[in-house]
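# step 3/5: fold
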Amino acid sequence: MTMLEGLLYTWYSLPFVSPNNLLITTITSTGVAIEFIYLLIFLVYAPKKEKLKIVGLLAFVLTVIATVALVSLLALHGKPRMHMCGIVTTIFTIVMYASPLSVARMVIKTKSVEYMPFWLSLFTFICGILWFLFGLLGADPYVYVPNGLGGLLGMMQLILYAIYRDKKAEPKKAVDDGFIEKVEPKKAADDGSVVEMNSVDLEKANPKKHQDPI
């Protein structure tokens, strides 16, 4: 979702869509390049199931940006083009900022911030506020509206962190509430997450330990 938001803002900030937005173009295109590197690293080391999931999401991202680009270029011109791209960008930016709400719900239910990283919450807040101020200075509602909401959501996460930072989640409660998937040992071994060894394997690995005393 972050890559899609970056691609949409890059497209929105191009001179033939909305003029005088070179700073947005530079920053968001750099962010897209970094996200692409992250995805490549993930695809190299991720399990096959996760790779397929990411490839599907990437196909969705490319479909959305291609649709927006084609419609805005072929069907719209001038202000309508800018407004169409701005509205779509605003919607997906709000969705991106709102995606951690499921984690916030987990924090409230388990009364623990174990699964909500502090630094991610902090920089979500800082990033949202800085883009909000930038949008205000440029009088661009398609920048300050979604990022202002993002700053508020980041602040909410920081407040939750301050309230529950000294508490630990109970594993059983987290599993019962559906926040964590319980992985059975056999399933973990079948998935390659855990190497299952029997007594014969142990004897082969350390034969001296299993020899009878003389």
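# step 4/5: annotate
Residues 208-214 have pLDDT under 50 and may be disordered.
# step 5/5: archive (pending)
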